[in-house]
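Researcher: I'd like a structural prediction for the single chain below. Treat it as a standalone chain; there are no partners to consider.
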Amino acid sequence: MAGTFKFELVSPERILMSVDVDQVIVPGAEGQFTVLQSHAPVISTLLPGVIHVKSAEIKKSIFVRSGFAEVTADQLTILAERAFIVDEVDPRQLDEELELAQRALDTAETDDARLHVTRAIEQLKALIGEAA
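Model: Treating it as a single chain, here is the predicted structure.
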């Protein structure tokens, strides 16, 4: 059985989570990847999406708009531009996030920026649908 490793999620405002976990599923730029203890070292940018954190004690879903993930053999650190724990967020905040993303789509100047914001909109709409 796999062991635990340290997971830290850091936003510009504060450390959102710092716990020992069994598994984390991350929305990496090259696709989702699962981190377990003794994972090979990786640095990845993040796409907008939901991080799934699992251990014997906790099961959390965290929305991230963008950021970076750094994996070592015994730790995963995510530096997120904007993040919130899904089951702790007010539905109004989801609506505000969606509105911000839609405005960002209107001002996106490159195909990569439009793709990134479109993915954020899709992910937020899915979370809003789940919350309803």
